[in-house]
Write a structure and sequence with these properties.
This protein has 16 helices and 19 strands. With about 450 residues, the protein is an alpha/beta fold. The protein has two domains: about 260 residues, Aldehyde Dehydrogenase, Chain A, domain 1, CATH 3.40.605.10; about 190 residues, 3-Layer(aba) Sandwich (Aldehyde Dehydrogenase, Chain A, domain 2), CATH 3.40.309. Strands 11-12-13-10-9-15-16 form a seven-stranded mixed β-sheet, with helices on both faces. Strands 6-5-4-7-8-18 form a six-stranded mixed β-sheet, sandwiched between helices. Helix 3 packs across helix 4 and helix 4 runs parallel beside helix 6. About 50% of the residues are buried. Its EC number is 1.2.1.16, 1.2.1.20, 1.2.1.79. GO terms for molecular function: aldehyde dehydrogenase [NAD(P)+] activity; glutarate-semialdehyde dehydrogenase (NADP+) activity; succinate-semialdehyde dehydrogenase (NAD+) activity; succinate-semialdehyde dehydrogenase (NADP+) activity.
């Protein structure tokens, strides 16, 4: 894939970039290693001051960078502005909390005495240069939720961003430099995916984090495993959205629309499989379908647009193939199910009912504004359908029954269970999945400690 900005609203190539050559990559690796030797000794106060400054600059740039993101990957511009604001919030949260999250831990006095020590503490120390392989769908947020904790922990970052968001990638490097971070603290590598393996094998790179597809995750995990390097993977998701009879059906249906089409349906944590108890299935389906039909699809630069184009032509083809396969196998189209006329990589918000296990869309992630609707006879069947997926990122459940809440928390195979609301990420709470959705956690104290050397410091009596 060329490194280029291609406007998904009309298919026009606006800017292309040459990939960095081996000499430039080597220069940047040397710079990262040298910078880490000094940056690791900075104080939390020094790092926090710089990160707060980066947040201030991002807020000043909010309008401009939002338009860049929308131009590069098609998200509605009001959602792009919200993404920039969320990133600034996360940077401030880590600037304010990192020292507390990474404070030395003191084991119990009895355990210290039993070990024969006079004093023991656990210290969190940075690892070094961390390679981040990031996707295009949240081109700022995916990077910041890695960069903010990594930099506050004393690591330095090397970003390999998706090839279709090069302007956003370069903006991020510039943002940290303008904030006062030294040149090698955060660097963008304009490279293709084929260059990742060799960089990850380099001894100067100590760990890697990847958000993206299953194949990309396998490739990075395989190399990192061979080189015995720490990784965090956040891969695909096909999150269930379960609606039980005690739910507020009107509200559930309204939130379901947003949960499915946020970011033009291109979100790992978007609800994709809607599993509805038979007692309220018809009422929910009617409201959900009406809500999807009412969405305004159009120019992503317009403030009233709710659904813009998919980010790439290949992504549009992949989504069409999933829908066509399901329809050929007997799925019913309640709305949408087609590409609208005109330029750009648009797909009409769609709902498919009557989906069976044999259909590809039941097993694979639909990365676009297409929902699948299932009828469940009871709670047991709802749990079975929800867990019948290779993914386990997050989940949504609508119920007012506390016994049902306990059951879903116990039995759903996911990294998160959100009740009576839409899955969302927040810097204070851990984020990540199980099964083929990956491993490790981002955000919160769990996220900042992923790329730390957890060191036991023991003093003899």
């Amino acid at each position: 894939m060329p490194i280029a900005t291609v406007n998904p609203a009309n298919g026009e190539t606006l800017k292309t970039y040459e990939a960095m050559d081996e000499q430039e990559i080597e220069r940047r690796l040397q710079l990262a290693e040298a910078t880490f030797r000094t940056y690791r000794t900075t104080t939390f106060d020094e790092r926090a001051r710089l990160l707060h400054r980066a947040a201030d600059l991002l807020e000043e740039d909010q309008q401009d960078i939002a338009r860049v993101m929308t131009t590069e990957m098609g998200k509605p511009v009001q959602q792009a502005r919200a993404e920039a604001a969320k990133c600034a919030k996360a940077m401030r949260w880590y600037a304010d909390h990192a020292e507390e999250l990474l404070a030395d831990e003191e084991p119990s006095a009895s355990d210290v005495k039993d070990s024969g020590a006079s004093h023991v503490r656990v210290r969190y120390r940075p690892l070094g240069p961390v390679l981040a392989v990031m996707p295009w769908n949240f081109p700022l947020w995916q990077v910041i939720r890695f960069a903010a904790p990594a930099l506050m922990a004393g690591n330095v970052g090397l970003l390999k961003h998706a090839s279709n968001v090069p302007q956003t990638a370069l903006y991020l490097e510039d943002l940290f430099h303008r904030a006062g971070f030294t040149e090698g603290t955060f660097q963008t590598l304009l490279i293709g995916s084929g260059a990742v393996d060799e960089i990850l094998r380099d001894e100067r790179v100590k760990a890697a984090t990847l958000t993206g597809s299953e194949p990309a995750g396998r490739a990075v995990a395989s190399t990192a495993g061979e080189m015995i390097k720490k990784t965090v993977l956040e891969l695909g998701g096909s999150d269930p959205f379960v609606v039980m009879p005690s739910a507020d059906i009107d509200r559930a249906a309204k939130v379901a629309v947003t949960a499915r089409v946020q970011n033009n349906g291109q979100s790992c944590i978007a609800a994709k499989r809607f599993i509805v108890h038979t007692d309220v299935y018809d009422a929910f389906a009617e409201r959900f379908t009406a809500g999807m039909k009412a969405l305004k699809v159009g120019d992503p630069m317009a403030d009233d647009t709710e659904v813009g184009p998919l980010a790439s032509e290949q992504g549009l083809r992949d989504l069409e193939e999933l829908v066509d396969d399901a329809v050929r196998s007997g799925a019913q189209v309640l709305c949408g199910g087609e590409r609208p006329d005109g330029p750009g990589w648009y797909y009409t918000p769609s709902i498919l009912a009557g989906v069976t296990r044999e259909m590809r869309i039941h097993r694979e992630e639909a990365f676009g504004p297409v929902a699948t609707l299932y009828r469940a006879a009871d709670l047991d069947e709802a749990v079975l359908i929800a867990n019948d997926s290779p993914f386990g990122l997050s989940s949504n459940v609508w119920t007012r029954d506390e016994a049902e809440v306990d059951r879903f928390v116990r039995d759903l195979e996911a990294g998160g269970v959100f009740f009576n609301g839409m899955t969302a990420s927040h810097p204070a709470f851990p984020f990540g999945g199980v099964k083929r959705s990956g491993y490790g956690r981002e955000l919160s104290g769990h996220g900042i400690r992923e790329f730390c050397n957890i060191t036991t410091v023991w003093h003899g009596a």
